[in-house]
UniProtKB/TrEMBL annotation:
Keywords for this protein: Membrane, Transmembrane, Transmembrane helix
Species assigned in the record: Agromyces seonyuensis
Domain of life (superkingdom): Bacteria
Name this polypeptide is given: Ferredoxin-NADPH reductase
TM spans (from-to): 12-38, 44-67, 88-108, 120-145, 166-183, 189-205
Length: 223
């Protein structure tokens, strides 16, 4: 019984350490975006935020790699994060840039069409496309953290098809990100210091399960 108690406490302390260290590394990796969000009005500085957002994608993919290594008892958090950056930063940057550019165009169209008669029909469709873009980008980053050399066609097709097929998991991840945005707006220190990596961990867990049919996760863990 005492041994089990020690194992439980070790697991809890290990997860707390993972959360705190990953939060710190995320802040450093996403510093341009963090500074813009904290020091400017997003309604006015959104073009600069759009330019800085892709720079955060490699840090997110590296955090997913740290979560994976923690789950299989591999590299420590710092080394896993560094390995994730090294292996995925180029392709993660492409994912971030592509998703941000597409979402920005769609949101500009939403704003332009929202006042017209056609907006009643088109705006909901554009809003759905923005959400789909976010889902595909999230799953693609998780996929890169698992298989950094995956072909683009396989990665994007799996992210789109499985993300929509298991939409309920994607919805939970998006809801968690919306809650994180609210926390960051009201309590930036809490959002940056604790909840950011917790939300990412939840999104990673959902996304990893979503991609299970193409990742052979059971075999990866056993290896």
């Amino acid at each position: 019984m005492q041994r089990v108690s020690h194992q439980v406490w070790a697991g809890i302390l290990g997860f707390v350490s993972l959360v705190l260290v990953t939060n710190l590394l995320l802040v450093v990796a996403c510093l341009p975006l963090v500074l813009l969000l904290m020091t400017t009005d997003p309604a006015l500085s959104w073009p600069w935020i759009a330019l800085a957002t892709p720079l955060a994608a490699p840090g997110v993919a590296a955090a997913f790699r740290a979560f994976r290594e923690h789950g299989v008892g591999g590299l420590g958090t710092l080394r896993a994060f560094g390995a994730g950056l090294r292996d995925t930063w180029r392709r993660a940057l492409v994912v971030g840039a592509g998703a941000t550019a597409l979402a920005a165009v769609l949101l500009v169209d939403v704003r332009a069409l929202s006042g017209g008669a056609i907006g009643v029909l088109v705006v909901p469709l554009l809003a759905v496309l923005v959400l789909v873009t976010c889902i595909v980008a999230l799953l693609a980053l998780v996929g890169l953290s698992e298989a950094p050399t995956a072909r683009w066609s396989d990665l994007l097709r799996a992210s789109a098809v499985l993300g929509l097929r298991r939409w309920y998991l994607s919805a939970v991840s998006l809801a968690a990100f919306a809650a994180q945005a609210a926390v960051f707006t009201t309590a930036p220190a809490l959002g940056l210091g604790i909840t950011a990596s917790v939300v990412l961990y939840l999104a990673w867990t959902n996304s990893r399960f979503t991609l299970r049919p193409v990742l052979d996760l059971d075999e990866a863990v056993a290896a």
